[in-house]
């Protein structure tokens, strides 16, 4: 009697290889999810910080603008006073004109001050730049949010597919994982604006 040699367990080996590949796939999804979560957190923080900075800049702008308005009103009043008092003594007229000149210099400095960067013109440009940065961060954030959701669902479906040997779940997981990865990349680069999303 001849004994047959033991047959290799090809079905078990195939199953182990499939499970190993799914495990690696889940690991890759987890890494992309971590990157997505970090990007979303950073976008949210940046939007908050830029909103605060913009609000502070506009408050400073308004305070300076109010000061400029008060000085302009004071100049107008001094001009009217000089017009009403044509017989004002020369010393008094010189004092009023010197005060008007000083006020006009302050108005000019309040309007534009490239040296300090705190003139109204410079504050306006800074406020608009901060608003633009905030808007960009706000536009990026939803892509990270949706990407994170898709990646989490993809990981769950891949885990269930690992246990149940379900190929359909693995395909759906792959689609969601790919979509989540694309949304994550778009969150960083903002190459495409999806209507209603960002």
Morphology: rod-shaped
The number of distinct β-strands equals 0
Query: Which bin fits the share of residues in helices?
Result: over 70%
What number of domains?
1
**Helix/strand/pairing category:** mainly alpha
| Major beta-sheet overview | none
Q: What's the tally of helices?
A: 4
Beta-strand percentage?
Answer: under 5%
Order of helices and strands: HHHH
Unreliable stretches covering 5 or more consecutive residues: none
> Please, what is the average pLDDT?
93
Q: Roughly how many Å is the radius of gyration?
A: 34 Å
Terminal residue distance: 76 Å
Detailed description of the structure:
The chain is an all-alpha fold and 198 residues long. The protein has one domain. The protein has four helices and no strands. Helix 3 runs antiparallel to helix 4. The longest helix has 75 residues. The termini are far apart.
Could you provide a short overview of the structure?
The chain is mainly alpha-helical and 198 residues long. It is built from 4 helices and no strands. It has one domain (28-189).
What key phrases describe this protein's structure?
4 helices
Q: Can you lay out the helices and strands and say which pair or pack?
A:
Blueprint (H helix, E strand, L loop, with lengths): L9 H75 L5 H22 L8 H45 L2 H23 L9
Helix pairs in contact: 1-2, 1-3, 1-4, 3-4
């Amino acid at each position: 009697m001849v004994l047959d040699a033991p047959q290799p367990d090809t079905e078990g080996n195939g199953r182990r290889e499939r499970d190993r590949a799914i495990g690696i796939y889940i690991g890759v999804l987890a890494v992309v999810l971590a990157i997505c979560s970090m990007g979303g957190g950073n976008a949210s923080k940046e939007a908050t910080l830029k909103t605060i900075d913009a609000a502070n800049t506009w408050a400073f702008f308004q305070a300076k603008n109010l000061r400029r308005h008060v000085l302009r009103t004071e100049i107008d009043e001094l001009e009217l006073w000089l017009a009403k008092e044509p017989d004002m003594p020369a010393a008094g007229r010189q004092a009023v004109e010197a005060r008007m000149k000083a006020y006009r210099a302050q108005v000019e400095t309040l309007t534009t001050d490239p040296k300090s960067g705190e003139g109204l013109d410079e504050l306006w440009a800074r406020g608009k730049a901060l608003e633009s940065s905030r808007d960009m961060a706000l536009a990026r954030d939803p892509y990270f949010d949706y990407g994170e959701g898709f990646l989490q669902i993809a990981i769950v479906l891949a885990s269930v597919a690992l246990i149940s040997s379900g190929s359909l779940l693995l395909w759906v997981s792959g689609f969601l994982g790919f979509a989540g990865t694309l949304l994550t990349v778009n969150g960083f680069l903002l190459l495409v604006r999806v209507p209603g999303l960002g």
